[in-house]
Design a protein that fits this description.
By secondary structure, the chain is of the alpha/beta class. The chain has four domains: 2-197, P-loop containing nucleotide triphosphate hydrolases (Rossmann fold, 3-Layer(aba) Sandwich), CATH 3.40.50; 201-232, no CATH class; 236-320, Dihydrodipicolinate Reductase, domain 2 (2-Layer Sandwich); 337-553, no CATH class. Helices cover 41% and strands 15% of the residues. It has a six-stranded mixed beta sheet. Strands 6, 7, 8, 9 and 10 form a five-stranded mixed beta sheet that branches. Strands 1-3-2 form a three-stranded parallel beta sheet, sandwiched between helices. 22% of the residues are buried.
């Protein structure tokens, strides 16, 4: 149960306990972190409990493993706050349909707000086919449902006087007829919902055609997921633990345990202060790979080691540093290793990371390999699946003296030769990727441009019929007389001039400014991703392949 007020919380606790409803837990902003963690852990692990919390304690709770019922003791008319409350049980990992209920006083200010809020949400749901179900309810927008709501209002005659239907659920004018106080709150709710509706049009899958309306996007997402599974199967926990130990840390326990512990090197503690399970004094962190485990056997909090955990980012950065660091460039490759393999003569397998980098960051990375023997042409491997069969961890060898014995007299220039072969092999793949990447991003830029045009028409009305003259969006716009915006056809210039026209309503001018800001925020990252550098390859390491019958050990 959620309530805004501590007094309401106390009254609800007393009523539930007096009614014999079982154990009742409480949480509020007055609780310290330790008390709050203990209450959360008990609620997530035991059955037949009731938790009553205030809004100050709503953020950050994950209760979906044990709970799918939520009651609002009063209804805050802020959609963001409602969504934050409902998100405690309506989130990833929930296996049951969340049941959301709320209390309101019929025939009062609350009811007048509530019914109009329902109509607003249903209108947006009909337009987008998707909107967060903040209220936890669904209504129909036909006249029969309107009459049903009217009947509910008139059912209790001592409290209600017959009146005309307060609003039509099919109308977009839900605020009509509201008293001043109601109208003020409804305007605030309108601003929140309009912000969601504009944000929902960032991509076509949340546009006017509705959620998942474009089957092509679903197919692309599924293809990308399958390609990722084929490219690399990563045991995230093993990867992090190996990286920590490689950097001088220690691992305690087993990965299959409900809880295991890592002793971290000093450089690994950044970003962990507020994470569950971290002990700053000892630089140890208790972790689990199970979503339903929140404490260890002693009741201490445990962190979930998922992809968003700071340690995963630390591990990735540390491995990159080891892979691309200065020691490899100085000829002291820390990634050199050796293995017995099914090869006719000693060979070297050089591995590289093929990269395409944009101004906005990395957009493509692919592990490549080149096999070089004393005689014969280098062999290029475009995917890890092609060269991984050469490697058997159970046949690993100590590298001592292997280079001097098998490779020193002929392999001096092999590293540079392998890098050239890897780059030549990677370029066609990078070119195809870059073409597809550019095409997709240009399509998205075009969608954003169309969105801006539609929003400009919504705010300022239709412009002149002449074709628009494009102007670079992120360069300083020429000075425009605020009274001449009607003659402008380029959407960004038209909105900027409209915003400068003080004769226009303040709300409309603010909306124009907001649209321009949102458009810049969306397009600038896309433009950064479109600026691609030349593809390159970075050395990862070298594997010495020793013939099974010729090693002599």
């Amino acid at each position: 149960m959620y309530t805004e007020y501590v007094d309401s919380q106390r009254a609800a606790v007393a009523a539930l306990r007096a009614a014999g409803c079982g154990a009742v837990l409480t949480m509020s902003g007055e609780d310290d972190d330790k008390t709050r963690a203990a209450t959360t852990a008990r609620f997530r692990q035991a059955d037949d409990l009731i938790l009553i919390s205030t809004d100050s304690a709503a953020e950050g709770l994950n209760l979906q493993q044990r709970c799918h019922h939520l009651i609002h003791l009063e209804l805050p008319f802020n959609p963001n706050r409602l969504e934050q409350r409902n998100g405690r049980i309506d989130r990833y990992g929930q296996t049951l349909e969340p049941q959301v209920r709320y209390l309101f006083l019929r025939g009062t200010f609350e009811e007048r707000i509530l019914l109009r809020l329902i109509a607003k949400y249903e209108r947006i749901r009909a337009r987008l086919t998707f909107v967060p179900n903040t209220l936890g309810i669904t209504t129909e927008t036909d006249a029969g449902q309107a009459r049903l709501l009217q009947g509910l209002l008139e059912e209790d005659t001592p409290l209600f006087q017959p009146d005309e239907t307060r609003f039509d659920l099919q109308s977009e004018r839900e605020n009509d007829g509201a008293d001043p106080a109601t109208a003020e709150l409804l305007e605030e709710i309108d601003r929140s919902l309009q912000g969601f509706q504009r944000a929902a049009k960032v991509h076509a899958w949340l546009g006017d055609t509705g959620l998942n309306a474009e089957a092509r996007l679903l197919q692309e997402a599924n293809s990308t997921r399958l390609a990722g599974q084929q490219a690399e199967q990563v045991d995230l926990a093993s990867f992090v633990c190996d990286a920590v130990q490689l950097d001088g840390g220690a691992f305690h326990g087993q990965l299959d345990d409900d809880c295991f512990t890592l002793s971290l090197p000093p450089a690994w503690t950044h970003g962990l202060v507020e994470m569950p399970g971290y002990e700053p004094e000892s630089r140890q962190v208790r972790l689990t790979t199970r979503l339903d485990v929140t404490t260890d056997g002693e009741g201490r909090p445990v962190g979930f080691l998922g992809r968003a955990h700071p340690l995963v980012r630390q591990a990735l950065e540390r491995v990159r540093q080891l892979s691309f660091g200065g020691t490899a460039r100085q000829g002291q490759d820390p990634r050199a290793s050796a293995v017995r393999a099914a090869v006719a003569e000693p060979a070297l397998l050089y591995t590289f990371l093929g990269r395409v980098i944009s101004r906005g960051g990395r957009v493509l990375e692919r592990v490549l390999a080149v096999q070089i023997e004393r005689a014969g042409s280098p062999r290029y491997f475009a995917t890890a699946a092609d060269w991984l069969p050469l490697i058997d961890p159970d046949r690993a060898l100590r590298t001592t003296d292997l280079w001097q014995r098998y490779f020193q007299d002929w392999a001096g220039d092999c590293a540079s030769q392998a890098e050239t072969v890897a780059l030549d092999g990677f370029r066609p793949l990078a070119a195809q990727f870059s073409a597809d990447h550019t095409r997709r991003l240009c399509q998205e830029v075009d969608q954003q441009t169309e969105w801006l045009r539609q929003r400009a028409e919504d705010i300022t009305g239709h412009g002149a019929s002449a074709l628009p003259v494009q102007h670079p969006l992120f360069e300083p716009a020429p000075e425009v007389n605020a009274t001449d915006w009607q003659s402008l056809t380029e959407p960004a210039l038209r909105l900027a001039a409209f915003h400068a026209d003080r004769r226009q309503p303040a709300a409309k001018r603010l909306e124009a400014e907001s649209v321009l800001r949102i458009h810049r925020q969306r397009v600038e990252p896309l433009q950064a991703l479109l600026e691609l550098r030349r593809p390159d390859v970075a050395p990862l390491g070298v594997l010495m392949l020793i013939p099974e019958a010729g090693h002599g050990a």
